[in-house]
Amino acid sequence: MRSRILPLFSCLALSSLSLLTAASCIERAPTPESRRQQFDRSSLKGTVILDSLPKGLHRASGTFGEAVTLAGYEVSPERPKPGDTVEVTFYWRVQQPPEVNYKVFVHGDISGSERRLNGDHWPAKKAYTTDMWQGGDVIRDAFLLRIPNDIDGEVVTLWTGFYNSKQDDIRLPLEVGDRSLTDGKNRLKALSLHIER
Asked: Which of 87, 122, 124, 132 has the fewest beta carbons under 10 Å from its own?
């Protein structure tokens, strides 16, 4: 009887050992933090990821989701004509890394008109998605906006923010010190373009 128990015990011990070994070999799913740490940022340094804000920026101020602040912007040309393509560059300062890959919305509301220009885009032309951003980053985010030839208003006001395109376009909540810079819809009034005639 004893001789039968020992082989049975040995088999059970070996089975338990193989289960433990197999469990230790199972790869765990990457966390947002581990993905950020593994992301190669070297090619983006100095072009998309900056150490500090460039001098001479137009200042802006609005924080989204207690994570990302629009710290400033550049625009060229500053006084576009109908038919011009305008390059707008936002500079985002990251306080806390977002957990989600958000898209930037840009609504160009034209004065005296129901029309709206749309500049929605993935930040940094999708080269550096928001779920890879790290605390302390300054992100250079350039995009183009075309002014229609038949634009009828004198001013285009650009409103911006972040939204999650995979969850019913849920926007990141906006915090601003100056209430005139928001319309209560988590949109920040970033800048106004005065159309040259």
From this structure: 87
- Amino acid identity, residue 67? A
pLDDT digits (tens, 9 = 90+) for 1-32: 555 554 544 544 445 545 444 455 566 777 87
Residue 40 inside a domain? The answer is no
Please state the pTM of the whole predicted model: 0.84
Amino acid 138 reads: V
**Both tokens of residue 143?**
């995009």
Phi-psi region of 181 (alpha: psi -120 to 50; beta: other; left: phi over 0): alpha
Q: Which domain holds residue 182?
A: 45-194
Q: What is the CATH number of the domain that holds 115?
A: 2.60.40.770
How many degrees, rounded to 5, is the angle at CA 195 between CA 193 and CA 197? 165
Token readout for 33 is 């933090």
Residue 164 contacts residue 94 (beta carbons within 8 Å): no
